[in-house]
């Protein structure tokens, strides 16, 4: 099936559906200038993200890890949502039941106005106490620039850590439950995700097992492509825009 036919089919299925779940990855934010983990911009200095986004890396060199996260926060603060974010935000109000499960931590979906967002891997804009002191909440939002790196907990003086899920850490049980609940849908669409990191990589196939029509939008084929009902090749912002233009007005 060529791309045009695939987009027509996806628009048709969406037009006949009331319950849509979308799973997004780094490819959605690429057009906003946010490097993907595994793309050409996936290196920071000489480090790969997998070498920095771990509890072990933070315990070994918290300043280095925070320098990377501070760079990412600055990059995202200057970025704007792109057409992919805008289309998904509109869909969050178009469909009677809409859930968006994102692996991204940049917050661009929320800035675009998307409703019902499940942040699977946390947020760049939240922090928590590394020491887990009883005076501090589990996580809280910190939007500003930190006066020192690594930043300190205002409650106990210990180190703060980014409010994200690192490699080797479990997904928050409440977040996992919300994501699994979202798999009960008519259409489950993966956009801009490599389908390599579990448990997020299993969400769309899990929706398929429950009877949903499953599709992905990605520039290259992923390990999940062959097990889905439809794979559309292309950049998230371009394909979503084409699908949106083919949907009937509401």
List keywords for this structure.
single chain; 250 residues; alpha/beta; Rossmann fold; SIR2/SIRT2 'Small Domain'; 2 domains; six-stranded parallel sheet; three-stranded antiparallel sheet; 9 strands; 33% helix
Molecular structure report:
The model has no long low-confidence stretch (mean pLDDT 92). The chain has nine helices and nine strands. Helix 1 crosses helix 9. The protein has a six-stranded parallel beta sheet with strand order 3-2-1-7-8-9, with helices on both faces. The chain starts with a helix and ends with a helix. The protein has 250 residues and is of the alpha/beta class. It folds into two domains: 154 residues, TPP-binding domain (Rossmann fold); 86 residues, SIR2/SIRT2 'Small Domain' (2-Layer Sandwich), CATH 3.30.1600.10. Strand 2, helix 6 and strand 3 form a beta-alpha-beta unit.
SSE topology:
Elements: H1 3-15, E1 19-24, H2 49-52, H3 55-60, H4 62-78, H5 83-94, E2 97-102, H6 108-111, E3 117-119, E4 122-129, E5 140-141, E6 160-164, H7 173-181, E7 187-191, H8 203-209, E8 213-218, E9 230-233, H9 236-246
Parallel strand pairs: 1-2, 1-7, 2-3, 7-8, 8-9
Antiparallel strand pairs: 4-5, 4-6
Helix pairs in contact: 1-9, 5-9
Offer a concise description of the structure.
Helices cover 33% and strands 18% of the residues.
């Amino acid at each position: 099936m060529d791309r045009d036919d695939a987009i027509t089919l996806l628009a048709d299925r969406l037009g006949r559906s009331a319950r849509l779940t979308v799973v997004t990855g780094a490819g959605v934010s690429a057009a906003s200038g946010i490097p993907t983990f595994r793309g050409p911009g996936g290196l920071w200095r000489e480090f790969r993200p997998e070498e920095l986004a771990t509890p072990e890396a933070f315990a070994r060199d918290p300043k280095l890890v925070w320098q990377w996260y501070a760079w990412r926060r600055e990059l995202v603060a200057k970025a704007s949502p792109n057409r992919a974010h805008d289309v998904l935000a509109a869909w969050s109000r178009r469909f009677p039941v809409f859930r968006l499960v994102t692996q991204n931590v940049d917050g661009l979906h929320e800035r675009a106005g998307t409703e019902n967002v499940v942040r699977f891997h946390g947020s760049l804009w939240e922090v928590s106490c590394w020491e887990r002191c009883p005076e501090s909440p589990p996580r809280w939002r910190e939007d500003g620039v930190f006066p020192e790196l690594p930043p300190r907990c205002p409650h106990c003086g210990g180190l703060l850590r980014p409010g994200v899920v690192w490699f080797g850490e479990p997904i928050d049980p409440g977040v996992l439950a919300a994501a699994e609940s979202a798999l009960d849908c008519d259409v489950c669409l993966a956009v801009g995700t490599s389908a390599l990191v579990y448990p997020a990589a299993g969400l769309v196939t899990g929706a398929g097992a429950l009877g949903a029509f499953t599709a992905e939008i990605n520039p290259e084929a992923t390990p999940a492509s062959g097990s889905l009902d439809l794979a559309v090749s292309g950049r998230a912002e371009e394909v979503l825009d084409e699908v949106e233009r083919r949907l009937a007005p509401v």
